[in-house]
Design a protein that fits this description.
By secondary structure, the protein is an alpha+beta fold. It is about 45% helix and about 20% strand. Strands 2-1-5-4-3 form a five-stranded antiparallel beta sheet, sandwiched between helices.
Length: about 160
């Protein structure tokens, strides 16, 4: 699957942060990660357990992707959500769109049904923000290139060495 290019501007990043924070409060989840299908975090909220949240995202995205083959064997184009339950932690992953996933981590203080309900609503709102970003004109030419060392020094008021 080829992912569509995405640049998240500051205003959209703030909207995503607000949506994820509301999701945590509404669903009772402890953490939420917005991931691309490769597992790269695009936005996070809450506290991801363990020393490496990026690994949690990558492994969850991999688990979600592996269910795609199972779905196709059963005649489905895709399973749109995935749920894992352990002794203390639970994980819910759901498709936001063709390129992104919403991962929720939660414990026994809430239910899978609550997380699923609010993940569906939040996913729709996130999909709108992401689609707006995909439709936004991209910077081209010199404006799209990273700053040179001299430009960066000048921007923060330092003289070149």
């Amino acid at each position: 699957m080829r992912m569509r290019a995405l640049s998240i501007h500051a205003d959209a990043a703030q909207r995503l942060d607000t949506l994820l924070a509301a999701f945590l409060a509404d669903a009772g989840a402890t953490a939420a990660l917005l991931l691309d299908r490769g597992g790269q975090p695009l936005a996070t909220a809450g506290v991801v357990p363990g020393p490496d949240p990026a690994s949690v995202g990558a492994l969850a995205a991999g688990a979600f992707a592996s269910t795609g083959a199972l779905a196709r064997l059963l005649g489905e184009p895709e399973f749109t959500s995935l749920f894992h339950e352990g002794a203390h932690e639970r994980l819910h992953a759901s498709a936001v769109d063709d390129d992104t996933l919403l991962l929720a981590l939660f414990d026994a203080r809430t239910t899978a049904g609550m997380v699923r309900l609010f993940a569906r609503e939040t996913g729709r709102a996130i999909a709108e923000v992401l689609e707006d970003q995909r439709l936004r004109p991209r910077l081209i030419g010199a404006l799209a290139a990273p700053l040179t060392d001299d430009e960066a020094r000048q921007a923060i008021g330092h003289r070149s060495a």
